[in-house]
Amino acid sequence: MTVGNGEGNFFAAPETLARLEGEGQVVFRYLDNPNGSTADIAGIVNGQGNVLGLMPHPDRAFEAELGSADGAILFQSVLASA
Questions:
Q1: Confidence check: pLDDT of 5 > 70
Q2: Residue 52 forms beta bridges with which residues?
Q3: CB 10 within 8 A of CB 38
Q4: Rounded to whole angstroms, how far apart are CA atoms 6 and 19?
Q5: For residue 51, which of 36, 46, 57, 81 is within the disulfide window of CB 3.0 to 4.6 Å?
Q6: What is the mean pLDDT of residues 34-55?
Q7: Rounded to 5 degrees, what angle do the CA atoms 76, 38, 63 make?
C-alpha cells in the first residue's frame, strides 16, 4: 500500500498496545515499516470494528495508472460487505 509520507506513525502506551492486541483491534501491519510505527501497526479498528484508522493510503493505489490498483481491494471489500 502506498505511504504518503514517512513522518506519521502509530504509538501507544504499553497497556494500550496490549489491550488493542488482546482485543484484536490491530488489523493492518507494515511488512517493511517505513515510519517506525510501534509493533509495525498500520491500521486499527475501534471496539465495535466499524471505524478504521489507517496510515497507508489505499486511495493513492486505486488504479493501474497510479502505479498500482492494490488499494482498490480495500474499498471493494468494504462495499461488498455492506
A1: no
A2: 45
A3: yes
A4: 26
A5: 46
A6: 92
A7: 25
Residue bearing the bigger pLDDT, 1 or 51: 51
* Cβ atoms of 71 and 28 closer than 8 Å: no
- For residues 44 and 51, is the Cβ–Cβ distance under 8 A? no
Rg (CA), the chain: 14
Whole-number percent of the chain with pLDDT over 90: 41
Q: Of 66, 64, 63, nearest to 75 (Cα)?
A: 63
pLDDT interval class at 26 (50, 70, 90)? very high
Indicate the domain borders of the chain.
14-81
Report CA torsion sign: 24, 34, 55, 38: positive
Amino acid at 69: A
Parallel, antiparallel, or unpaired for β 41-45 and 52-54?
A: antiparallel
The pTM of the full predicted model, rounded to 2 decimals, is 0.78
